[in-house]
Recover the amino acids of this structure.
């Protein structure tokens, strides 16, 4: 445990909000899994369960004007950013009320009004785009930063190196956030990456880096605030690596035959939602009643989101011909 | 009317765009200090400075991807990919990101990005540097693909591209840079998606784009000496494709030869033929003929290279097989 609540001088409402966001993500994903089983959701569904502390530790400290680009396991990022839960669920359902009118799907969530500039389903593809958004911010002297979220698989892509180089070369305000969950789809990092600690790759470009326990939301938050301050101060990019674990398979189609069951159990004992709840209670930052109230309100929000998504219309047939060109 | 080279016409239009709109900036490999691999951007760094004319590392994916991101962030980047062969290193960004952003975001995010690049062979650069891949990109909904054959069209199409909200592949040809032609002082544009009849004729329609327009025009002159009047249709835009102009011409001449520098199999010319078959079948007096590059990796040897790229004689022979 990196810091206690007291040491962080974190205010109780902030702590409770972090907890609420983590529970929201957890319950959203559990519900999405259930809806997938009932064929309400199609295609691929990549669940964020187990990694909640990373999104909730890094995204709330951003300013509303900042940009986020991310990968395809991004429901948690979208929820942490405050995209409407019901509209995310509706997008998963493929409905006209979804964040992309049902045309994007689970892997392509967008909300430009919140600076949420997309989930990208090609590994590494968000990294060049992040450098471009940061370039636009510098070009126009806007002071916005771009949080660029990617997984350990992206580190072996050429775009990782191209983007680190350009961001460092042009001093661009990008916070590169690696969610290292140990597996690129089903292949262990150990079998896919020749180097040791990935965060040291930043050294080659003169980019400062830090590794953080991605199962500890307060540790992540503290590191994220340091990183955000660095990037916003005009000192160029920062590379933050969060070590985490996904509790479910790569997607719903994955029975996770390649993973060691004991390893899974070990990580699950460090469940970020469970441990943070325990920490809140032990430090008396929250009462059992506070917790119960939060969990109840989350359940209501999820139930409402499912009802909304279910009741929403499918996009009209001619919707597929729209949004291809903007004249 | 003043005459400019193709290179100058593009450069002057870039200068105009930089002057007109602070959101416009250029980014590419060796476009600044070096002046551009083909000299198009010569002098622009000195005139506009490093903020507006950015030399990038040789890293095509981040070059295009950063252009996409910058466009999403409110700028209007004009990215130069030194040749279309190198676009393969950025093809994921072009096809999976730029072309789909508006759609996948449900209409929220536009990508007003121009990618200038160079197609074609003829410089003895070998197989990896001499391809015509614009037809690949023309297949992708969400992109626009233009390919000017003259200084006039280059200027007019680039102005239209600058005004676009969607990504445009602006495809140039290295053997056209010194081609000289009229470019009026008065402001004009060439709309994207409009083909142009470059030569009026009554006996056969020759459809071409980019440098092959000039090959077709030369063939037409040779044919005229033998009393065959060819109409030459310059596609100018591959996507959207102006099927009306193609078919109006074919309905008039009743014969068509489709010419392209690239490979025949799956080539863009097949799309043109398909359009003619769909719309002008009843008007045809002969099967549509195709002239295309040889189906080989481009050889280095000068004679072999020349033989691999369609020449006026190939077009003349194809026309004669129809009349």
């Amino acid at each position: 445990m990196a810091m206690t609540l007291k040491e962080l001088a974190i205010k109780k409402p902030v702590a409770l909000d972090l907890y609420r966001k983590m529970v929201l993500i957890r319950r959203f994903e559990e519900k999405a899994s259930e809806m997938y089983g009932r064929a309400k959701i199609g295609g691929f569904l990549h669940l964020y369960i187990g990694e909640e502390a990373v999104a909730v530790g890094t995204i709330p400290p951003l300013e509303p004007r900042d940009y986020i680009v991310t990968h395809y396991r991004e429901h948690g990022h979208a929820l942490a950013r405050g995209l409407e839960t019901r509209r995310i669920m509706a997008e998963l359902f493929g409905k006209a009320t979804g964040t992309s009118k049902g045309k994007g799907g689970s892997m392509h969530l967008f909300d430009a009004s919140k600076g949420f500039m997309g989930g990208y389903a090609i590994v590494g593809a968000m990294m060049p785009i992040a450098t471009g958004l940061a370039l636009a911010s510098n070009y126009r002297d806007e002071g916005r930063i771009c949080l660029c979220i990617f997984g350990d698989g992206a580190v072996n892509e050429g775009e990782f190196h191209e983007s680190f180089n350009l961001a460092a070369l042009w001093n661009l305000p990008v916070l590169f956030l690696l969610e290292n969950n140990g597996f690129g789809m089903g292949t262990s990092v150990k079998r896919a990456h020749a180097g040791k600690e990935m965060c040291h790759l930043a050294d080659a470009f003169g980019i400062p880096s830090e590794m953080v326990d991605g199962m500890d939301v307060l540790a992540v938050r503290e590191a994220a605030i340091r990183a955000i301050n660095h990037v916003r101060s005009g000192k160029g990019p920062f590379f933050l690596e969060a070590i985490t674990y996904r509790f479910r398979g790569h997607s719903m189609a994955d029975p996770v035959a390649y993973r060691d069951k004991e390893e899974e159990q070990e990580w699950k004992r460090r469940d970020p939602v469970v441990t943070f709840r325990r920490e809140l209670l032990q430090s008396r930052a929250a009462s059992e009643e506070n917790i119960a109230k939060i969990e109840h309100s989350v359940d209501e929000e999820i139930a409402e989101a499912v009802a909304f998504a279910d009741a929403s219309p499918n996009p009209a047939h001619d919707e597929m011909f729209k949004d291809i060109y903007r004249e | 009317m003043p005459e400019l080279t193709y290179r100058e016409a593009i450069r002057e239009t870039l200068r105009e765009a930089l002057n007109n709109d602070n959101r416009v900036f250029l980014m590419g490999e060796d476009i600044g200090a070096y002046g551009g691999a083909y000299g198009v951007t010569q002098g622009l760094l000195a005139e506009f400075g490093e903020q507006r004319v950015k030399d990038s590392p040789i890293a095509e994916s981040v070059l295009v991807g950063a252009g996409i991101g910058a466009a999403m962030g409110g700028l209007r980047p004009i990215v130069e990919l030194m040749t279309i062969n190198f676009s393969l290193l950025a093809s994921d960004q072009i096809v999976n990101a730029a072309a789909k952003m508006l759609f996948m975001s449900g209409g929220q995010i536009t990508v007003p990005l121009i990618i200038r690049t160079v197609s074609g062979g003829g410089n003895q650069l070998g197989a990896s540097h001499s391809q015509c891949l614009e037809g690949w990109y023309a297949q992708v909904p969400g992109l626009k693909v233009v390919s000017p054959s003259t200084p006039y069209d280059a200027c007019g199409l680039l102005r239209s591209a600058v005004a676009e909200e969607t990504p445009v592949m602006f495809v140039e040809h290295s053997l056209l840079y010194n081609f000289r032609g009229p470019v009026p002082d008065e402001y004009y544009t060439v709309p994207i998606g409009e083909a142009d009849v470059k030569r009026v004729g009554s006996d056969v329609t020759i459809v071409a784009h980019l440098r092959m327009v000039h090959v077709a025009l030369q063939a037409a002159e040779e044919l005229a000496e033998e009393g065959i009047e060819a109409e030459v249709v310059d596609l100018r835009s591959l996507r959207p494709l102006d099927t009306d102009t193609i078919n109006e011409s074919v309905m008039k001449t009743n014969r068509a030869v489709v010419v392209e520098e690239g490979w025949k199999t799956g080539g863009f010319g097949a799309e043109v033929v398909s359009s003619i078959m769909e719309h002008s079948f009843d008007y045809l007096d002969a099967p549509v003929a195709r002239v295309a590059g040889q189906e080989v990796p481009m050889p280095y040897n000068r004679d072999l290279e020349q033989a691999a790229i369609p020449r006026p004689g190939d077009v003349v022979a194809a026309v004669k097989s129809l009349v």
User: Anything to note?
Assistant: The mean pLDDT of chain A is 95. Chain A has one domain: 5-306.
